Write a sequence for this structure.
């Protein structure tokens, strides 16, 4: 649904997008619907946020106070930096107008007039395409003082990030948007009450908002026909790593990972076996290759202790070492830790140094125990935001499923994966 | 300065809803908006904190305060950012909470240098205390620690040790939130985050020293008092700062007769726990080895009796040919005795008080410092209050950035309050402040602010350091106050200028043409007049200006003084000697009495209390002197923490 | 002599008005400054600060937090090579090795002798399906191979030579025709 028009030439041009039915939804909203009706429509669709937390989008919008006297903002989270996830870039590069339209509709739904798209600094091309799309839509009178002749001003603006994964965390993003060091805020107050520049704000992911025009065009119930009982619709997954056809694929929520990895992404390379996969970005707890039949149902994943997250599926086959992969990810989390809260700042770095010792064959039972204790110290509300937890989950889940590899490294100073490769 | 946006409770708001909760099984009722840490404090339960500070906006960064809170997710939660809620159940002693805090403490120590034996904070260090009470009893930390270059001088007065820092951000938050400056910030990120002064340039703020008090570990220490003594090796005395008219409350620390440090002592009516750098670091003169201890006549040691007779002989019967220079920090008691001399043997003398403004005695409608908190509109006229009344400046900043007051400044030059993007600064021509004030009554900015925000209005005015016609300015401010229903605060500068005004001794005379000079305190700002033939100098340090003085009397410094000051809002506060005035030094009240006797006046008091009682009877503004508070304030409450996990 | 041109300072001074609160202008301002000077020196940051009426320390705090602000000189063309998991699984390490050889440096951040190149190892660039990838001259270079690295480097060397030759002969340098990258779309399933 989201990608139904992808592949058409020049979809990034307003004329093409509009010719296919684009901006119909925004027209409908500003000329004939109330904010409450928009929220109801989205509620009926069952749409849940695609940024990682699966939070119901309509509910988030309804938390924004209706009677607030000052400005209210929609902030679009286009900071996509989760390892393994590339779907927001894919959406923006293919159909920037869908995001602009979705952001404008969301602004209307919360009773705001301005949407800010916070886009990571490395996304030059999507930035340019969005900039052009906004200019086109404004010139055409779809945005601005009187969108579609209505008296409801709508304005979409862009703000560039400058290299920090933590800016994906919504409150850090808001700090960054305010020109500060991107360190997450403690809650309460929640962004819906005090968000960007101290005003009520809803932060939504690119994919979430790009889905909204479809829902308005076809109606919420139509969207809700896809998916599982509680997790409706489709989503885009990015498959990367050791598969033959890595790429972005729109899937109906509820299909299995086997379907995605083996059928859509072409499966493992000849002669290789899938050892492990991250089902929803590097921050989701890993599942072993034996669990490929797991469904993409969001709640099912939650029950397994992991998550659909940002939809980035990283696949690793038996030619790679789990300990090294985990060490690499920990280096990522330590590098991106904002430094605000103690457990994440110190713990992630402590873990990195421990992994370094292990991989330098200086490991022992002490290092094994240490990793276990650091992972505990990172989780369970210890950290201010989800980054610290995610770092802990990487350690915990890889240790839980692949303790043998950890023990080989720590206790026997060997790596069977490496050995096998040398053999070949 | 950041505009604060958190839901920090306004504890003074009237008639707040009350909320019932339990903490560790103790039921309690507290006002809505109270934070869980604060509620626990009321019960005497210790929830350890690093980043939380009751005068700063909570940030929930250090995670030291983790507890279990129901209803809520089954994870540890930071008590410092959670307001209480009806029916909330807080548990600080469950396995999860105890372990969470121990884990955080262990993380704090992973890279800590553990150089407690040579750390100035040792003995009064929350990191030591919390580790002792909440940490794991054994160390599981192995491997090398991270290292930083250290110590780094942040300024003449402050040293930074980045290895000891726990990154609670109290110092940088204070700088931004309270002082509206960003010369101290955090640089880098993640584990490489460090506190930094901009490109290693020295700090220049007049408010920098507060970060030493705020730092919960030994990362920020005083360079004035470094490696001098252990905290438990000092005696401390609660007193009042002598450097300006604000009257901040301070604690003075003494060791073996030396004043070794001055720290803030929170008084919410005045300073809220902040003091300026003058008050904190400007004390080394007290310990100067060159201090005067003995009276001298023409450079030769003399007894007090000889010296006082010589002074009396030199100044007696001189009428208006006698000039007297007064220190700005004379106490009310000294002022009262001095008045007796002025009314008697020294009648007619010209008097000039140091450091005072041209402002007259207050005329009522007094704005108290605390009232500034609730002002919706604040008007500051003819004063650069960052320098004139530093801690009042911080109070104004709080009202503006934390409580949304509108600020209007009338001053010819840029001032630090311009840092707020909503400050309205009317730049008057020097000498025309009164005219601007009169225009303000019809000024669109003020009227709009009043319409939007309502009252109360606070008007604070100085004397433009001599550039303004003080009487006219006072009248203009009073007119404006009448029109908009404002209260007024004259911004006196001299430490006890207001007390001296009320006593009628705060002279503003020119000393030109006098023949004899009694130079009490530092020499006259305008210099010793050429016409002077006899100088009696009464000071605590030898000064080149006093080289040719006929008589030199040794004076006590502020640290050896007892008595009282009246601050700029009219509050009478008592100072206590942190260091004993040991013979041959004499306390000033005693010297004044003896000088009176030498001048033929019957000035006999058995001690300072009879003087205070008499002042209280005679001067209504100083009635508070009748009852000096007990010198032993109630000891601070000790919070009970658990044993090791 | 100020480090920033006066028209740039004017541009920076006009930025705060574009945002609901003035501090939001800090990053866009640093961006402009970096574009003009190449990297952010204390002088540059101080000038940005005073143009925005902030203390330099504030700007230093922001600039040192974000990795896209450079505090040290970089090459004219900086390769931002992703070495996160998805790219590493598909050979990012070999790409980095080849790049080092091709531009003649031994570590990240080092600038090649001719001043043309430097590289950084960065975290996930959000193009994992094209792993290994890098960002170069404001565009992504995808499905990197060693040969592709060589040609990216050589193309730029040649281009520089042309420009130099053109300058030397005082002919107007022909700006390189910018290849407009067409967004790739991969097959989808639903
Ligand atoms: C460490 C961290 C990184 C995150 N990164 C992203 C991101 O890159 N993009 C995103 O949309 N959401 C990200 N999120 C989730 C956001 O905080 C937020 O939940 C989301 O933007 C809300 O949008 P949604 O409701 O549409 O999902 C991240 C969260 C955390 C804790
Ligand atoms: S968990 Fe990490 S990233 Fe999140 S606030 Fe703490 S230090 Fe910052
Ligand atoms: S005191 Fe609560 S997080 Fe620091």
């Amino acid at each position: 649904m989201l990608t139904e028009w992808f592949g058409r030439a020049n979809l990034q041009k307003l004329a093409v997008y509009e010719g296919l039915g684009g901006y119909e939804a925004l027209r409908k909203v500003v000329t004939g619907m109330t904010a409450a009706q928009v929220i109801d429509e989205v509620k009926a669709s069952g749409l849940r946020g695609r940024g990682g937390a699966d939070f119901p989008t309509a509910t988030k919008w309804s938390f924004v106070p209706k009677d607030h006297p000052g400005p209210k903002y929609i902030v679009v989270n286009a900071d996509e930096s989760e390892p393994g996830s590339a779907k927001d870039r894919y959406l923006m590069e293919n159909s920037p107008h869908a995001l602009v339209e979705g952001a404008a509709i969301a602004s209307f739904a919360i009773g705001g007039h301005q949407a800010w798209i916070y886009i990571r600094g490395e996304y030059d091309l999507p930035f340019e395409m969005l900039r052009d799309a906004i200019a086109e839509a404004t010139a055409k009178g779809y945005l601005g003082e009187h969108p579609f002749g209505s008296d409801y001003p709508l304005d979409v603006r862009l703000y560039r990030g400058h290299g920090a994964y933590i800016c994906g965390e919504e409150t850090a993003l808001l700090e960054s948007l305010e020109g500060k060091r991107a360190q997450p805020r403690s809650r309460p107050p929640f962004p819906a009450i005090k968000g960007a520049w101290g005003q009520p704000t809803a932060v939504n992911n690119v994919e979430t908002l790009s889905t909204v025009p479809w829902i308005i065009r076809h109606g919420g119930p139509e969207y809700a026909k896809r998916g599982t009982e509680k997790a409706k619709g489709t989503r885009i997954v990015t498959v990367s790593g050791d598969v033959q056809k890595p790429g972005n694929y729109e899937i109906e929520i509820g299909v299995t990972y086997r379907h995605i990895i083996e059928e859509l992404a072409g499966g493992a390379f000849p002669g290789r076996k899938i050892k492990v996969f991250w089902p929803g970005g590097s921050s989701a707890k890993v599942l072993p290759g034996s669990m490929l039949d797991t469904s993409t149902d969001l709640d099912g994943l939650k029950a397994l202790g992991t998550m659909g997250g940002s939809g980035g599926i990283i696949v690793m086959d038996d030619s790679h070492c789990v300990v090294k992969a985990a060490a690499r990810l920990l280096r990522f989390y330590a590098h991106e830790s904002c430094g605000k809260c103690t457990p994440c700042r110190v713990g992630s770095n402590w873990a990195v140094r421990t992994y370094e010792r292990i991989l330098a064959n200086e490991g022992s039972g002490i290092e094994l125990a240490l990793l276990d204790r650091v992972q505990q110290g990172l989780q369970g509300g210890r950290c201010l935001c989800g980054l610290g937890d995610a770092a802990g989950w990487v350690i915990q889940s890889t240790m839980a499923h692949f303790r043998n590899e950890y023990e080989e490294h720590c206790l026997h100073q060997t790596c069977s994966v490496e050995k096998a490769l040398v053999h070949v | 300065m950041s505009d604060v946006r958190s839901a920090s409770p306004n504890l003074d708001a009237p008639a707040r809803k009350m909320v019932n909760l339990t903490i560790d099984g103790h039921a309690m009722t507290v006002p809505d908006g109270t934070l869980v840490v604060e509620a626990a404090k009321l019960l005497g339960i210790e929830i350890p904190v690093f980043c939380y500070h009751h005068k700063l906006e909570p940030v929930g960064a250090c995670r030291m305060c983790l507890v279990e809170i129901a209803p809520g997710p089954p994870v540890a939660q930071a008590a410092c950012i959670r307001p209480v809620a009806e029916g909330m159940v807080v548990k600080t002693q469950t396995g999860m909470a105890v372990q969470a805090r121990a884990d955080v403490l262990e993380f704090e120590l992973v890279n800590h240098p553990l150089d407690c034996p040579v750390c100035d904070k040792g003995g009064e260090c929350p990191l030591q205390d919390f580790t002792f009470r909440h940490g794991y009893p054994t160390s599981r930390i192995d491997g090398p620690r991270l290292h930083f270059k250290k110590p780094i001088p942040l300024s003449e007065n402050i040293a930074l040790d980045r290895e000891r820092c726990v990154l609670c951000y109290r110092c940088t938050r204070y700088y931004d939130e309270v002082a509206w400056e960003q010369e101290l910030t955090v640089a880098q990120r993640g584990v490489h985050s460090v506190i930094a002064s901009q490109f290693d340039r020295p700090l220049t703020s007049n408010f920098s020293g507060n970060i030493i008090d705020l730092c919960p570990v030994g990362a920020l220490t005083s360079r004035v008092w470094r490696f001098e003594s252990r905290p438990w090796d000092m005696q401390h005395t609660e007193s009042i700062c002598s450097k300006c008219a604000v009257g901040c409350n301070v604690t003075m620390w003494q060791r073996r007769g030396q004043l070794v440090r001055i720290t803030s002592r929170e008084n919410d009516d005045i300073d809220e726990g902040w003091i300026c750098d003058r008050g904190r670091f400007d004390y080394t003169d007290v310990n100067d080895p060159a201090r005067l201890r003995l009276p001298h006549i023409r450079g030769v040691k003399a007894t007090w009796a000889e010296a006082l007779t010589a002074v009396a002989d030199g100044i007696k019967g001189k009428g208006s040919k006698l000039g007297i220079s007064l220190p700005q920090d004379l106490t009310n008691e000294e002022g009262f005795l001095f008045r007796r001399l002025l009314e008697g043997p020294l009648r007619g003398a010209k008097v000039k008080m140091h450091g005072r403004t041209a402002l007259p005695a207050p005329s009522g409608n007094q704005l108290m410092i605390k009232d500034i908190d609730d002002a919706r509109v604040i008007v500051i006229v003819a004063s650069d209050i960052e320098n004139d009344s530093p801690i009042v400046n911080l109070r104004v900043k709080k009202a503006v950035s934390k409580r949304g007051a509108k600020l209007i400044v009338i001053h010819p030059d840029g001032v630090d309050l311009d840092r707020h993007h909503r400050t309205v600064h009317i730049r008057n021509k020097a000498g025309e402040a009164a005219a601007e004030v009169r225009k303000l009554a019809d000024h669109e900015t003020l009227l709009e602010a009043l319409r939007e925000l309502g009252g109360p209005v606070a008007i604070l005015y100085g004397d433009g350091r001599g550039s303004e016609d003080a009487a006219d300015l006072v009248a203009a401010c009073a007119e404006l106050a009448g029109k908009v229903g404002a209260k007024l605060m004259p911004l006196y500068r001299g430490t006890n200028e207001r007390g001296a005004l009320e006593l009628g001794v705060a002279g503003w005379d020119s000393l030109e043409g006098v023949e004899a000079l009694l130079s009490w305190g530092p020499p006259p700002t305008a210099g010793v007049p050429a016409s002077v033939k006899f100088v009696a100098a009464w000071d605590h340090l030898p000064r080149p200006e006093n080289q040719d003085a006929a008589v030199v009397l040794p004076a006590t410094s502020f640290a050896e003084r007892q008595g009282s000051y009246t601050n700029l809002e009219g509050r009478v506060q008592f100072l206590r000697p942190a260091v004993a005035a040991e013979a041959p030094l004499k306390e000033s009240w005693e010297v004044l009495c003896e000088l009176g006797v030498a001048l033929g006046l019957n000035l006999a008091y058995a001690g300072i209390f009879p003087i205070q009682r008499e002042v209280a009877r005679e001067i209504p503004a100083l009635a508070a002197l009748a009852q000096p508070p007990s010198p032993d304030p109630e000891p601070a409450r000790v919070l009970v923490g658990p044993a090791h996990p | 002599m100020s480090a920033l041109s006066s028209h740039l300072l004017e541009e920076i001074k006009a930025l705060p008005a574009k945002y609901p609160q003035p501090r939001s202008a800090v990053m866009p301002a640093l961006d402009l400054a970096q574009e003009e000077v190449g990297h952010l020196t204390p002088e540059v940051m101080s000038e940005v600060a005073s143009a925005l009426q902030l203390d330099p320390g504030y700007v230093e705090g922001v600039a040192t937090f974000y990795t896209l602000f450079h505090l040290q000189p970089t090459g004219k063309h900086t390769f931002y090579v992703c070495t996160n998991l998805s790219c590493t699984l598909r050979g990012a390490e070999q790409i980095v090795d080849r790049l080092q050889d091709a531009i003649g440096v031994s570590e990240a951040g080092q600038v090649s002798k001719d001043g043309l190149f430097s590289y950084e190892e960065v975290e996930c660039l959000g193009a994992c399906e094209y792993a290994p990838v890098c960002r170069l001259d404001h565009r992504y270079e995808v499905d990197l191979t060693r040969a592709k690295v060589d040609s990216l480097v050589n193309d730029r060397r040649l281009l520089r030579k042309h420009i130099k030759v053109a300058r030397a002969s005082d002919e107007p340098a022909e700006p390189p025709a910018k290849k407009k990258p067409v967004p790739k779309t991969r097959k989808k399933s639903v």
About this structure: Helices of chain C lie at 6-14, 26-37, 42-51, 56-63, 85-89, 92-103, 146-168. The radius of gyration of chain C is 19 Å. The longest strand of chain C covers residues 77-82. Residues 20 and 26 of chain C are 13 Å apart (CA to CA).
